[in-house]
Amino acid sequence: MTNHKDTGERQQKIIVFLLFIVLVLISIVVGTFNKINLLEKSPVTEIPDIEPVVEEVVESVGKIAIIIDDFGYRNDKVSEGFLSMDTEMTYAVIPGHEHSQTMSKKASQSGYEVIAHMPMGSTIPSFGEEEYIIKASMTSGEIEARMNKVLQHLPEIVGMNNHQGSSASANRRVMNVMGTVLKEHGKYFLDSRTTKETQAESVMRLIGVPTGRRHVFLDNNPDETSITQQLNLLAETAKANGFAVGIGHVKKHTLNVLQREIPKLKADNYEFVFISKVVN
Ligand SMILES: [Zn+2]
Description:
Layout: H1 2-50, E1 62-71, H2 77-82, E2 90-93, H3 100-109, E3 113-118, H4 140-153, E4 159-162, H5 172-185, E5 188-191, H6 200-207, E6 211-213, E7 216-217, H7 224-241, E8 243-249, H8 252-267, E9 270-272
Parallel strand pairs: 1-2, 1-8, 1-9, 2-3, 3-4, 4-5, 5-6, 7-8
Helix pairs in contact: 4-5, 5-6, 7-8
The protein binds zinc ion.
């Protein structure tokens, strides 16, 4: 009888033990299943976070950087028109004229990039800039003093380009003195290329001053049809080259064409940038 009782108890223990094993196995299986589920779920839950990051990026067809030269001669409807353009524009102020400091300040405060427009041995007689003009006949000390005078006169400038007839840009010594001052003050030099013999870019690169060149003059011929053609040439150059630099002047027809054509070029995905974005 006791044997039967013992056998019964042993069987009960075995059943309890087996049930325990089954429960352990079930919990392991369920645990693993949950882990797999979590692994499968995690990338799914991340998708909504990733989706907003995937913005519709419009590829730029090319970067266009426009400089408007000769600010400082006038302060009127035309200059005001340029200062209300809804585009990244770089304005070059010729030192020493009646409106030079006013325009430099205004342009900078209105969010545009401002550079000094340097007369360098121009053969065209001009009043106002005589105290700032740089000539190849000057000593290096005189050139350095004039550069520092320009930097004090137009404190808003972030760079410099050269005015028409700037024959001194062909002189490596002159460019070297100018470049050294620019380097010291962290400014760039954009070569307007007013003479084929220009040495500006090569000297600036040697010194380590960010530099670049003008590709297209927009308004040498001042009628609007011609300016529009030149602007389209600038856009084609930007498309082929990645970027292009155009130079125009503070003139009514230039303003009209830019106000009319820039929105069209933007619609064609051209990107308008400051000169500082294309010099290197
Ligand atoms: Zn000029």
